[in-house]
Amino acid sequence: MTNLPPPAASGNCFYILTEDCAYGSKYFQAGTMCFCSERSYLRNFSEAGPPTCFLKVVVLDDGSGVTVNVGILQPLREEAAGFLLAIGSPKERLSFFLERLSLEAALGAAPGRNVMVEVDRKFFPGVIRYVGSIYKPSLAVLAPVFFGVELQVMWPGRKIPGPGIRGDPEVPSVWDGIPASPGVLCRPPGLFPSFDSDVGLGPPNPRKAETSESGEEGEGGNSPLEVNSMVQIALDKGSQVSGIIRWLGFLPQIKEKMAGVELDEDKGVTGGEWLGKSYFHCAPKRGLFVRLNSCQPDQRFQSLPDARPSLLEYGEREVLPQAPPESFPPLRNEAAVRVLRGRMKGIQGHCNSCYMDAALFSLFSCTSVLDSMLFMPFPLSDRNVQGILRDEIVNPLRRTGFVRASSVMHLREQLTDKGQCSSFTNAEKDPEEFLNLIMQQILGMEPLLKLQSGGQEQDCYCYQIFLDKQEDLVVPNVQQLVERSFLSSDLKLVEIPSCFIIQMPRFGKEYKMFSKIIPSLELDITDLLLDSPRECCLCGDVATLECLECFQDQVFAATGLKQFCSSCSRQVHSHHRRKAHKPARLHIPEEFQRWNSRRRQPIPREKLELFAVLCIETSHYVAFVKYGPGKEHWMFFDSMADRHGGESGFNIPAVTLCPEVAKYLELPLAGLALEQPRDMDGVAKRLFCDAYMYLFQSRKMALYK
C-alpha cells in the first residue's frame, strides 16, 4: 500500500506538487501547494481499505478539490509550508523547496539574526525583527510567513531602496519598539544567512595592533599594511573581496583609522569619494572605505619571511581553520554571481589538477544533487576523504567562492593513499577516473545509473556514448546522441537517475566525432525508461509498440524514439517500405492502464535539467555551470586562467559570466552549422566545440537519494 506521512498537529497534511498536473479542465503547475484533512487522509489510507495510489487534496491557492497521484506529492511540515506559501510563483516555490539547505536555513532563522537581504537586485545587511504572517487573523487553513528585516545603514548618506514598513496596519505591533530605520518585508528566497560583517561602520574585531615602518598603527596579519598593500576584506560570511589600499588616514566624524581600497571587482560603493571629497581615484563602484583593522594581507600574494616556498610546501605548512559545524547551500542566481564571479575565484589549480577542479566546481558550486557525498554514512565511506571534500572544498567554495590549491592537494593525497593509483597527485587524469574512484572505491556510493540491456541489469556512475559514424548528423544535440546510443546498445534506464553524467563521443584528446554539439538544456528520458508509459509519436495516445527500423527511417523526425499505438502502427507498417519492420511490444503497467482508461490524460514526461558541462580542447579541462533559470545564466570556470610568478609561483583561477551562450542556443541549426568557431563570441566556442562531459540532474529524484 502507498503511504504518506500522517497529518500534522493541526489536523491537516500539506503537500507540494513536484510535477505539472491536469485535472478536468484545470491545470496546476509543479510547485502548487495543497492539503488534505485528517478525515480524508484516514479514509484514503485506511489499513482496511484497498491499496490506493491517489489522494484527494484541496489546492491552497483557489480551494479546488483535486485527485492527485501520490507519486507527485511531496509532504511538507506545516512550518515549511508557511514559508513556501509566501512565494507566489509555483516554479520559484518548487525550486526553493528542492534546495533543501536553503529551506532549512529559513526554518532556522529567528528574530535578532543578522542576514543579507536582496532589495531591488542588490544585497544589504539587516537584522530579522519579525517572522510570521502579515495578514489579519482569518479562517484560512495556512497563512504565508514573511520576514520583517530592519536594514542596517552602513555608509553616511547612502539611501537604501525598498519600501519602509513602519505604520503598515497589517504588520504586527512587534515593530513598534524598534528605532526608526529602513525596513523591508521579504520572502525566504530573498534572505541569505551570512553575516557579522566587521567592515564599514560596524564594531571592529579585537586584533593585535602592529606598527608599520612609518610609525602608524596597522592591524591584521603579520605584515604591516600601507598604501599599495594587497588586502582581503570579509564583507560577511558569504562574501569576500580583495583589492589594493590606495589611501590611509582619518575621515571626518570617524575616530578609527580608515583605508581607501580599490577593489578587483565592481563591489564597492564609490569612485574614491567620501562625503563629496575625493581621497583617491578609481573606477565607479570599485572604491570602498573600511576600517584598517578590517583589512587582512592578501594571503594569495603574501611571501613568507624566508625564500618563497612552492605552493605545495605552503599548503603543508599552513594550519587549516576548524571546519564550520554548519553546511552551506549551493549558490544560485544573484548569490552565485555575488560570491563566485571574479579573479582568484573558484578552485585554484596546481600540478595537472584541472580535471578535478572542473569536476568539483561543476558538481558542487550551484547544485546540491550530489550533496549526499558530503554527509551520508556510506557502507565503505572513508570519513577523512568525506570530511576534506565537505569542509576544505565544498563549504569554502559556497561560502567565500574560493578554494586553495593546497585543499585540493590534500584530497588528491588521500585519493592516492586509498586508491589503486599512485599518480593522482601529479599526473594528468580524466574526470571520469576521479569520479569513479571517489564514488565507487572510496565512498562506496550507490551507482548513479541503473541500466538494462538484453534482460541484464548493469550499474555505472558515468555513461559513455558509443556510436557508429552518423552521416545524417552534422550538428547534433545531446538528446539525439543519447537516444541513438541507447538504441544502438539496446539499453533502457531502470529508474530515473538523480544525476546523469554523460561522456561525449570523443576519444583521446584529438578525435572528436562532431565538430559541434548543441547542449540540450533539458534531456527528455521518458522514452528511455524501462516499463514506463509512453506516448504514440503520431496521435499522442498510449503507445504499445516500438520500432527500431522506423527510428532510422528518414521519413520520420531525427529526434525522438518511434513508438506507436496499435492503430497507428498498423497504418505506418502498411506501407510497402515498412512491411518488413519488426515492432517490439511495450510493457504498460496495469495500474497506469486502469488510471488512464478513466481520465485519458497526457502521458507525463520525465525530464532532466542540464546543470554543467566539462570541456577540453587539447589537454586542459574547464567548466561551464548554469547558475540560474535563463538561457543566458552561464558562468565559465578555469582553475588556471592566469599565473603569478614563475615556477615557484601559483595559478590564478577565474570565474566569468558568459551570457553570449544564449545567442548560439537560440540560433537555427543551419545558422549554427555555418558559424566559424574562431568568430564565436566570448567563450561560447569552447562550450559548443570542446564539450567532453554533460551533467544533468533531477532535483525531484535527488530528494530520495
Automatic annotation (TrEMBL):
Q: GO terms for molecular function, please?
A: cysteine-type deubiquitinase activity; metal ion binding
The record's EC number reads: 3.4.19.12
Provide the protein's localization.
Cell membrane; Cytoplasm, Cytoskeleton, Cilium basal body; Cytoplasm, Cytoskeleton, Microtubule organizing center, Centrosome; Cytoplasm, Cytoskeleton, Spindle
Q: Which GO terms describe its biological process?
A: innate immune response; protein deubiquitination; proteolysis; Wnt signaling pathway
Q: Which InterPro entries match?
A: CAP-Gly_dom_sf (IPR036859), CAP-Gly_domain (IPR000938), Papain-like_cys_pep_sf (IPR038765), Peptidase_C19_UCH (IPR001394), USP (IPR028889), USP_CS (IPR018200)
Q: How does it sit in the membrane?
A: Peripheral membrane protein
Residue ranges of domain CAP-Gly in the record: 249-291
Q: Which UniProt keywords apply?
A: Cell membrane, Cell projection, Cytoplasm, Hydrolase, Immunity, Innate immunity, Membrane, Metal-binding, Microtubule, Phosphoprotein, Protease, Thiol protease, Ubl conjugation, Ubl conjugation pathway, Wnt signaling pathway, Zinc
| Region feature Disordered, mapped onto this chain | 197-225
Predominant cellular place of this UniProt entry's protein: membrane
Top-level taxon of the source organism: Eukaryota
Catalytic function, reaction form: Thiol-dependent hydrolysis of ester, thioester, amide, peptide and isopeptide bonds formed by the C-terminal Gly of ubiquitin (a 76-residue protein attached to proteins as an intracellular targeting signal)
Pfam families per the UniProt record, alphabetical: CAP_GLY, UCH
**Ranges annotated as spanning the membrane:** none
Domain USP as annotated: residue spans: 345-699
Cellular component aspect of the GO annotation: centrosome; microtubule; perinuclear region of cytoplasm; plasma membrane; spindle
Family membership, please give it. Answer: Belongs to the peptidase C19 family.
User: What's the subunit arrangement here?
Assistant: Interacts (via CAP-Gly domain) with IKBKG/NEMO (via proline-rich C-terminal region). Interacts with TRAF2 and TRIP. Interacts with PLK1, DVL1, DVL3, MAVS, TBK1, IKKE and RIGI. Interacts (via CAP-Gly domain) with microtubules. Interacts with HDAC6 and BCL3. Interacts with MAP3K7. Identified in a complex with TRAF6 and SQSTM1. Interacts with OPTN and SQSTM1. Interacts with CEP350. Interacts with RNF31; the interaction is indirect and is mediated via SPATA2.
Q: What is this protein called?
A: Ubiquitin carboxyl-terminal hydrolase CYLD
The scientific name of the source species is: Lepidothrix coronata (blue-crowned manakin)
